[in-house]
Amino acid sequence: MKNATIGYPRIGEFRELKFAVEKYFKGENSQEDLEAVANGLKEKHWASQKGKVDYISSNDFSFYDNFLDLAILFNLIPRRYQELDLCELDTYFAMARGYQSGECDVKALAMKKWFDTNYHYQVIEIEDDANICLRGSKPFDEYLAARKSGIETKPMIIGPFTLFKLARFTGEKSVDHFVEQTVKAYGEMLERFETLGCVWVQLDEPALVKDLAGDDIELFKSVYEKLLERKGCLKILLQTYFDDVRDCYDQILELDFDGLGLDFVAGSKNRELVINGPYLDKTLFAGVVNGKNIWKNNYNTSLKLLKELEANCKEVVISTSCSLLHVPYTLANEPGLKEGYKRHFAFAKEKLDELLELKQLSASGDLGNEPGYRKNKELFGKRDCVNERVQAEMNNLAPADFRRGDDFDFRAHCQKKYFNLPLLPTTTIGSFPQTGELKRMRSLYRKGKVKQPEYEGYIQGLIRQWIEIQEDIGLDVLVHGEFERNDMVEYFGANLEGYLFSCNGWVQSYGTRAVKPPIIWGDVAWVRPLSCKWISYAQSLSAKPVKGMLTGPVTMLNWSFPREDITSKEMALQLALAIRQEVDCLEKQGIKIIQIDEAALREKLPLKKSRWHDDYLDWAIEAFRLCHSRVAATTQIHTHMCYSEFGDILPEIDAMDADVITFEASRSDMELLKKLREEQFKTAIGPGIYDIHSPRIPPVDELALAINKIKEEVGLEKLWINPDCGLKTRGETETVASLKNMVQTTRETRKNM
Ligand code: GLN
Ligand code: ZN
Q1: Confidence of residue 405 (pLDDT cuts 50, 70, 90)
Q2: Cβ–ligand 1 contact at 219 (below 6 Å)
Q3: Interval 129-151: pLDDT, tens
Q4: What is the DSSP secondary structure assignment for residue 305, as one 8-state letter?
Q5: Atom of ligand 1 nearest to the CA of 431
Q6: How large is the average pLDDT for residues 1-18?
Q7: Within a domain: residue 117?
Q8: In sequence order, what are the residues at sequence separation of 6 or more whose Cβ sits closer than 8 angstroms to the Cβ of residue 484?
């Protein structure tokens, strides 16, 4: 068997690309400098794969986002960017991040989550007068550059179906109008590759793993029937990932693809499709090495699967489940992680070794005598990761642990009396500006250069300062400001047992931004208070209620690398038990309003609707309820979600049984508000009335308009007034000015009632 990668991370082992691009943005770097860094990275990434991988990808590099790359390649540059009249690279960056200069202020393309990953892509816009044609040369340049360094690559390009499904059609015209041009453009690209002497081209079509309607399947068929007529002697690999292709497997078989890439890690039905389906007369690129997680591959399982697959197809190539973009570079830069841990992990570079070893083992007639196989097998026995106390708590969970003692209406009644808040209570989402000084202090503290009493005194000072500011502004429910946290997941993970952290485990989140997700190593346990002392300190300074802030179990899980030896449900429940302990701790110290953030709950909904409940929502909701089931009727539970696109799961959100939910509300959200009313949404709501992602101070009349509109849709009784997310990325001046306007507007609205 041969082996392959779908794509390799590109941001650089030490985030070299990020720094080079940011320097270019600041004008400290020329285009040539930037290209030199980029070319160096490409060479390095190909070189890492050479000798280990048979089918190496090119064009997996990108300055910002490989979906956005299509806009340049196929002439999909919206008019507002064309009019800027910039060079190609600057036009590209203008689409990525907007463009401001003098009077001119052009907004960036929207950014969205790439399927169920934490990577974001830029949403390409297709305008009515778009003229889709082959315009750019990046894929060809990269292919030739690799060949020059002695590597025959398979260029990867996102395919036309996924382009159509993810792009936004901005005018009257829809997909049908653009099919012909698009097929022609992709066709020309294929012809060009053929002329260059390329052998395989990989077309990525992850959109095929979503639920497909009849129209979608028709579109897929009609595009590819025509496109594949133009492939000449090229071999075309249809690459899918993130789930299975149950909705279109038959159609795929009928089409003249030479290779089919399937994800056997996340695609639960792919195995069955191949094994029980008709003989697969194509090369199957079998994604068995997980491209989304950092645990070592289980060779025994993979080799068995590969054999089964081989029995029913022409050829099997061992591949990764998706691009390695979603894992960090290498364990080589993790001196802080002990060997005992590291031997269980494989980052991108180590996954290349796994691909090689799997290839060698697949040819062995006597696995039991292969040292690599035996060494691997040892990893999947017992691991030092069990916490008896947590196990016992898990075993003792009973239905009552998932239900609050009092029903929603009774609680609402008690809380109304207890808090005696005005109509339209005002609050914020939790964090206040994290200044450069605070970040410096934190870093000095971490390095031991600032001692604990000094650091803690500093944090207390900030809390004091912001309690005063909030009192002065006149907010009704205050917060402590989250100054002790660098990040809402990392801070909690670092203070719970069961988590591990990498030093350089960066994963690209979007453009120049990378995150370092923590690793869930073992049973998660609460061992010490997480934030209690800061929050109760804040409460001691004010007679108004201070809302305690916690990160919820589902968000903790979704923004970490999860274990593979227990289920998501088990991990979420363990996290919930830990957070419940913190909730108890807060309640005991007199914190009467507690917010459990589930910023990432909506974004990890399974790609297929049929799996929403069993595979996700059922346990996600249970986990959330477990956190707060024990609190008194007068303790008010809030939650916060970053995405408001939860119109399709309103009953489930209500089932979380929080008392209040705040969320991001944007332009299109009047739809959602209508739905909330129609479906008699029970939980009180705080739809963000202004956008915190911009430094702009919302004027009073604009806020009044927003409040009036919202109140018309959902009434007054259940409405809270707040910004749409935490304020940690904002400056102090604009934060105070915006909140003052918010409170003033609310007071005027109350007066006019
Ligand atoms: N409480 C967090 C904050 O205010 C919520 C962040 C988020 O929603 N991503 O920063
Ligand atoms: Zn948010």
Answers
A1: very high
A2: no
A3: 999 999 999 999 999 999 999 99
A4: H
A5: 4
A6: 97
A7: yes
A8: 459, 491, 531, 534
How many whole angstroms from its chain centre is CA 736?
A: 30
Among candidate residues 521, 523, 484, the one with its CA nearest the CA of residue 501: 521
Mean residue pLDDT across the chain: 96
> Quick check: 524 and 575 in contact, CB under 8 A?
yes
My answer on whether 356 and 426 are in the same domain is no
The pTM score is: 0.95
How many DSSP H helices and E strands does the chain contain?
Answer: 28, 24
264-316 residue pLDDT tens = 999 999 999 999 999 999 999 999 999 999 999 999 999 999 999 999 999 99
Q: Look at residue 401 and tell me if it is in a domain.
A: no
Residues 136 and 184 in one domain: yes
Q: Give the torsion sign (CA, 563, 569, 574, 578).
A: positive
The pLDDT value recorded for residue 668 is 56
Same domain, 355 and 426: no
Q: Is the pLDDT of residue 642 over 90?
A: no
Same domain, 372 and 415: no
Claim to verify: residue 639 and residue 732 sit in the same structural domain = yes
Residues 67 and 191 grouped into a single domain: yes
In the reported structure, the alpha carbon of residue 429 is separated from the centroid of ligand 1 by a whole-number distance in angstroms of 6
In a domain, 645, yes or no: yes
* Helical spans, DSSP H, in 400-451: 408-419, 436-446
What total number of domains does the chain contain?
2
Q: Please indicate, yes or no, whether residues 20 and 151 belong to a single structural domain of this protein.
A: yes
Instruction: Please name the residue whose Cα sits nearest to atom 3 of ligand 1.
Output: 726
What CATH number corresponds to the domain at position 202?
A: 3.20.20.210
> If you search the block for the tokens 């007679």, which residue do you land on?
543
Residues 6+ apart with CB under 8 A from 611: none
Nearest CA, atom 1, ligand 1: 430
> What distance in Å separates the CA atoms of residue 476 and residue 495, rounded to the nearest whole number?
30
Total residue count of the chain as it appears in this document: 753
Cα 375–Cα 380–Cα 384 angle in degrees, nearest 5: 110
The Å distance, Cα 156 to ligand 1 centre, comes to: 36
| Parent domain of 244 | 2-378
